Amino acid sequence: MIQIYVTGGTFDKEYNELNGSLYFKETHLQEMLTKGRNRLDVKTDTLFMKDSLEFSDTDRIQICDACLSVNADRILITHGTDTMTLTAEYLAGQISNKTIVLTGAMIPYKFGSSDGMFNLGSALAFIQVLPPGVYISMNGKVFEAGKVRKNLERGEFEAI
Amino acid sequence: MIQIYVTGGTFDKEYNELNGSLYFKETHLQEMLTKGRNRLDVKTDTLFMKDSLEFSDTDRIQICDACLSVNADRILITHGTDTMTLTAEYLAGQISNKTIVLTGAMIPYKFGSSDGMFNLGSALAFIQVLPPGVYISMNGKVFEAGKVRKNLERGEFEAI
Amino acid sequence: MIQIYVTGGTFDKEYNELNGSLYFKETHLQEMLTKGRNRLDVKTDTLFMKDSLEFSDTDRIQICDACLSVNADRILITHGTDTMTLTAEYLAGQISNKTIVLTGAMIPYKFGSSDGMFNLGSALAFIQVLPPGVYISMNGKVFEAGKVRKNLERGEFEAI
Amino acid sequence: MIQIYVTGGTFDKEYNELNGSLYFKETHLQEMLTKGRNRLDVKTDTLFMKDSLEFSDTDRIQICDACLSVNADRILITHGTDTMTLTAEYLAGQISNKTIVLTGAMIPYKFGSSDGMFNLGSALAFIQVLPPGVYISMNGKVFEAGKVRKNLERGEFEAI
């Protein structure tokens, strides 16, 4: 069984047509899994729905506690891309016996041209075959926590 | 470097608005990789564009020859789902030193609700981490050639 | 109040992922009206769901009877494009005191790049302002019954 | 011939994946007309690309001058919904011998679930059949300038 924790991020942003802003309503994770005809045994829980630039230490502790306490060795976390590397590094310092993969999207799933489905497919694949550790799966690639940064100019993740 | 061979399949089917039929025009693989913000080093070649129910032995031999002769150890093949297991088994009998992953889609990429992006993401992930062998990646899962069948009633792949 | 009669056509075709064929399940008319934020007072009924190449005389009589008996002077009919002109001519010979507009699509609504939303918007506009008569609304244009043909080579409607 | 003037608005907003904001790049009007299989003779010019909340008097004067000087009696203006009624009223006070229709969208065209195609279809239909005057076409309806307001709570246009 794979545990999926939703924490928000661009993945799940929606357009508020009443005021023209972007906001979170509810996660589209289940809809995405259905569209992808996923047949893996997954359990999805929403921890919170936040832009990752607004994550506090408390939020990361909550994610970490959820990963530690859950009865699953393989955990996928959907996460905003801006501070994904920070959370990955924090988790890597706290957890060593589980395979944890963080992923996200550059474009909201609801906005037609999203990379979300591609990233979700990659992340769920990596999580099944990688040894214990904390990883980021973006742009078709996988990176170990602490060895990756988001290139803000290019909008992509790269090894460091 | 990952070599991608396109052979057609539902993945690439389009709707012909002049006569209401489904047909192949050209592959959408590059468009899908761009949408997924793929940053892996891939090379894409179209071997042919066919419904896999119409594959002949010659077609499978052509795929096999392409895999053997190319200077790449990791090869992704997009393929119709109906005879994907047959091609996988044939390749497994001929090639043992490369990691080959076959994938496809139940819904054409162009028809909005396709599982294609999800499957492409999964397949590109599996191909990076699995040892040499021939695999099928569908429904978020990965199967070894010879140990999988398409359940025609449910429209999904399952281990045998 | 505007009465909408659904009769099938490309508009409502879907992709059957189990056998790769196109078929009718149920109409997407209500979903399209919601997506268009339609606020007109409309009532939608499905007469049947058929490819218009398979319409019989009985089908056209049923459409005509429905138009005659309904308590509405403005009627929109969604219809396959292949025999839309025939039905329009038949209705024009039977009904003279109502504004009836037929429309359809070249690409199924469910296939992403459909002209369906555009045609539905046009048809609902024309129906509000045109005098009694039977019309076809396609390609942004409106044609009187009997003065239009479908150009099969170009896949568009043109005046004759 | 129908002249189309693009002035921006939600219609044409896009998502900037580098910073998560909404912005204008270029209009999607031509792409929308192609998708709708439009065969009307239209000419499209972009006057500017702005959120209509940021329109100045100068902007409205520019729109008005363009409408007056162009050699076309039927003019479609794509416009943000927030001040669409203001521009309509201003134009109605300056121009009386042309049929001018303003339309827009509540959801950007690029965001999948847009009402843009529906509104564009309606507006192009109304413009062909309505007598000289200035109108707003939204939600499938048409309103005369000065007799309509945007209901901000419901996100729809209504007669006053």
Automatic annotation (TrEMBL), chains A, B, C, D:
Cross-referenced InterPro entries: Asp/glu_Ase-like_sf, Asparaginase/glutaminase-like, L-asparaginase_N, L-asparaginase_N_sf
Keyword Hydrolase belongs to the record: yes
Superkingdom assignment: Bacteria
Enzyme kind, highest EC tier: hydrolase
Keyword set, alphabetical order: Hydrolase
PROSITE patterns the record matches: ASN_GLN_ASE_3
Enzyme Commission identifier(s): 3.5.1.1
L-asparaginase N-terminal domain span: 2-151
GO molecular function: asparaginase activity
Record PANTHER family: 60 KDA LYSOPHOSPHOLIPASE, L-ASPARAGINASE
Protein name: Asparaginase domain-containing protein
Species: Aquirufa regiilacus
Top-level taxonomy: Bacteria, Pseudomonadati, Bacteroidota, Cytophagia, Cytophagales
